[in-house]
């Protein structure tokens, strides 16, 4: 299986590079780049005030993007840093400092915070935003789902709905939930994805700011395992990963490659042991 895992990782990297170079995705990623990367504290503030927020920006930034805040909308409070130029008096002798005179002149220090307001895209109207097609459901039947259910180390249940999600790993109970109306093939892919979360992301509470990287690892693992087992999730996985990580997807994939491969091997080995047990019983 190691060769299949390696081949799947290479295919995933090449596929992402191709997808991210298309005009449609390029426009979408340029739009994403227009938004600030919010701190952990501000991410929590946004989630608490507007849990369904997707893209947030200040009043003037929305104007620059050709949109305006709807009348009567209330802003989402976040912290903005207060910065001032560092004193010209050097804290250490000049000969011991690696900073150039220009760097010293431009250096700013944090001395506090103030409250500013941002608005979610749903609170605005105006010029349409760039979009890309959502990943399509993987259709078809597959006996892989039943095989995965037999060896998955986490309890699995099927539910009517999980909102916009198709699967979920509960960090409190270590249980997996999957939407029951999905085709069998997509259930298999989703179960692998959530299993990967269990293997990779159960060491303490998750930082919301790390969500894109977490989803990249889980979906990459799902793609690798599915590919090794003959289930093609290319269209879904590539778009899903690119949607979370954007133009950084390939670099992030390389950085997390070892973790993804180890998680994929763990799942494939569990299936292999099941096959060996079946042969022994025969």
The number of E-state strands comes to 8
Low-pLDDT windows of residues? 91-97, 277-282
* Helix and strand pattern: HHHEHEEHEEHEEEHHHHH
Beta percentage is: 15-25%
Give the fraction of residues assigned to helices: 40-55%
The computed structural class is: alpha+beta
C-alpha-based Rg, rounded? 23 Å
| Spatial strand sequence of the major β-sheet | 1-4-3
Instruction: For the record, give the distance between the C-alpha atoms at the N and C termini, rounded to a whole number.
Output: 23 Å
Q: Could you give a short account of the major beta sheet?
A: 3 strands, antiparallel
> Averaged pLDDT, please?
84
Count of helices?
11
Shape descriptor reads elongated
Q: Could you describe the 3D structure shown?
A:
- There is one protein chain.
- With 282 residues, this protein is α+β, with helices and mostly antiparallel strands.
- It has helices at residues 2-20, 23-33, 40-49, 59-64, 101-106, 144-151, 184-200, 211-228, 234-245, 249-255, 257-281; strands at 56-57, 67-69, 76-85, 108-120, 124-126, 156-159, 167-170, 175-179.
- A 3-stranded antiparallel β-sheet has the order 1-4-3. It has a 3-stranded mixed β-sheet with strand order 6-8-7. Strands 2-5 form a two-stranded antiparallel sheet.
- α1 (2-20) packs across α8, α1 packs across α9 and α6 (144-151) runs parallel beside α7 (184-200).
- The model is unreliable at 91-97 and 277-282 (pLDDT under 50).
